[in-house]
Amino acid sequence: MKDSIRFGIFWLWLAVSLSICAQCQLASKSLILPDHRSVEAQFAEDVRKVPLAAQSSVSRVLGRDLPIYRARRVLGAFTFTNEPHELSARFTRKGVRLRRGAWHWGMSLSGYGYGTNLKTLHRVDPVAGVNRVEYKRGDLTEWYINGPLGLEQGFTIARRPSRASTQPLTILLSLSGNLQATANQGSGGVTLRNSAGEAALDYAGLNAFDAAGRELRSSLEVNNDRLLLKVDDTKAIYPVVIDPWVQMSTLRASNGRLTAAFGFSAAMDGDTIVVGSPYIGNYKGEAYVFVRPANGWNRNMTETARLSTSDGGKCTQFTGCQFGYSVAISGDSVAIGTGADRGNDYVFVKPAMGWKTTSKFNAKLVANIGNTRVAIQGNCVVAGAALAGNGAAFVFVRPAGGWKGVVHKTATLTASDGKFEDEFGFAVGNEGDVIAVGALRAGTSCGSGVRFRQTGRRLEEHH
Known about the structure:
Strands 1, 2, 3, 4, 5, 6, 11, 17 and 18 form a 9-stranded antiparallel beta sheet that branches. Strands 7-8-9-10-19-15-16 form a 7-stranded antiparallel beta sheet. Strands 26-27-28-29-33 form a 5-stranded mixed beta sheet, with no helix packed on it. The chain is globular, with a radius of gyration of 23 Å. It has 463 residues and is mostly beta strands. Strand 8 (132-137) and strand 9 form a beta hairpin. It folds into 2 domains: 22-242, no CATH class; 251-462, Methylamine Dehydrogenase, Chain H (7 Propeller), CATH 2.130.10. It is 8% helix and 44% strand.
């Protein structure tokens, strides 16, 4: 796939197989800094080649799947590090402190409300999950998500503050450190300068939207040691999300909800992006196809088509199908993995007239495994199942008549030295006659990987 990126699949195996164990300190950042020529820096550069519409979601997914971007608890606090941006972050009750060399900058959420009538917020302990750190304060949640593009900061407000006002909704952050913040007129961002007036860091601009996916007018102000994020919520439907991230386009599901895990998985090939939402519809799940318009990626695009499963035979009352747990695309073919136990995977082929919303798949890939990560290239689909026995990857080859009906596995790949706790099959990728399978916990805490190369009609294991 010459012009595409396999999100969290082949790249995860590549990262762990290159033994990046020295980087297992984990990560965070939302500031644009000079490139650092490492594997992680190249990774971030590759993500920036993705259409701006999808960069945020892709960075979140990759940050979740790669151990180097996960939160770590150190001396009663949570920490992130981010080698591509030469930045570290520390989260405590007092707030977040970012550091790059001798430079440091602190932010602490002080209040929110309307105009100057702001509700004072008390300090709370942060909580962490994978590559996300949160401060939960009643109706307002402050969150940070780490990935190859840096630290994405955001605020989710569940309900409109009690007192109505014609003034903008305002979030107040108190600043500290040895860098001076200066607002950039017209860009919605902030430049952080050292004592010599030199630019040290850039803080991303604002993007705010409501529960209906409508973008809300927003602005940013700096007043000495205070940073104010302002949003016009006059006609907003709550919850409202305020997301300081440079992003020219945003992909949203037309029927999406904040709890549906839209963006749990993502893949791209050429001008087409596929995004998984496995928790929508009581965990039944859907996948969304976005096709680049002739005039380019636009703000607040909704999907071209929605894909779902029509058989539903493997859905359960408690876990659903979790269709969209993983997604992959190659040319006109999309592979969808499910998260439900004993579930199947599916292939959809683009119709002659283009992608349309449908629940009718072209082919069902039967292995009865579930919790799968899928990859597709040309005529071959690989499904990794880390929880199947000692872990496995299943190979499906497109029949002579094309992807249609029930397709059974052609081969089962396992590691010769595999153990259940290795999670072999946590990530998969294929290119030409090579299949890569990642084992998240094999050998070291950073994982390992195995390659299988086709020799004649056999697949041989190569470490």
